[in-house]
Write a structure and sequence with these properties.
Blueprint lengths: L1 E3 L5 H17 L12 H9 L3 E6 L2 E10 L15 E9 L8 H15 L4 E6 L4 H9 L3 E6 L4 E7 L3
Parallel strand pairs: 4-5
Antiparallel strand pairs: 1-2, 2-3, 3-4, 5-7, 6-7
Helix pairs in contact: 1-2
The chain binds coenzyme A (COA).
Coenzyme A binds next to helix 1, strand 4, helix 3 and helix 4.
């Protein structure tokens, strides 16, 4: 079940982020760490009303943050036309992967983005994070370019009317 994140979810999200970050590093992907994303990052997303979680049998097993397109670094690329919201910090508990939870989180995002009157979604990921890239490409996200200052590949999805 996907629902808005609450302050009570923050300890679990911090715990999940550590598990996910260690998994990324074990897979040779230098993304996330012991201190990022942290409770404070999720708390900021919550404050900005952009925190969403997936709960299965009373336990949060996935989350993402959906935020306004305000990151200065994104301005260095020429993006396709379209007003966008940006997905940050998407994660699914490794024990629950490949069960469609990420897909459900993203489908929920698409509905929200449309409902709020936007026409596109932006996201960035590490060049070595091939799993995330395959995940994004399965939704039709297109690579827009490389965000060299943050060492991330940028992706864009224009939503159907
Ligand atoms: C990326 C992530 C969120 C996907 O979550 P998930 O719940 O496993 O994804 P789903 O089961 O909904 O997969 C949807 C589709 O994405 C693609 N996909 C997902 N994982 C994949 C993998 N390991 N290899 C190739 N394709 C993959 C497939 O097309 C899949 O559809 P299919 O299972 O019908 O083939 C998850 O792997 C994750 O948490 N990764 C670590 C955190 C991370 O890297 N976050 C991004 C930081 S920018």
């Amino acid at each position: 079940m996907i629902r808005k994140g609450t302050i009570d979810d923050l300890p679990r999200l911090d715990e999940l982020a550590r598990i996910v970050a260690r998994g990324l590093h074990a897979d040779g992907i230098d993304q996330w760490s012991e201190t990022y994303p942290a409770k404070t990052d999720f708390a900021k997303d919550l404050y900005r009303e952009g925190l969403w979680v997936d709960e299965e049998n009373g336990v949060v097993v996935g989350s993402l943050s959906l935020l306004p397109d305000v990151d200065e670094v994104y301005r260095i690329l020429k993006w396709p036309e379209g007003s966008a919201l940006v997905v940050h910090r998407i994660m699914v508990d490794p024990a629950f992967r490949r069960q469609g939870i990420g897909r459900r989180l993203m489908e929920h995002t698409v509905r929200l983005v449309k409902a709020e009157g936007f026409s596109a979604v932006k996201v960035d990921t590490h060049p070595d994070n091939k799993r995330m890239q395959a995940f994004l490409e399965s939704f039709g996200f297109r690579k827009v370019g490389f965000l060299a200052p943050i060492f991330r590949v940028a992706y864009f999805l224009r939503l159907e009317e």
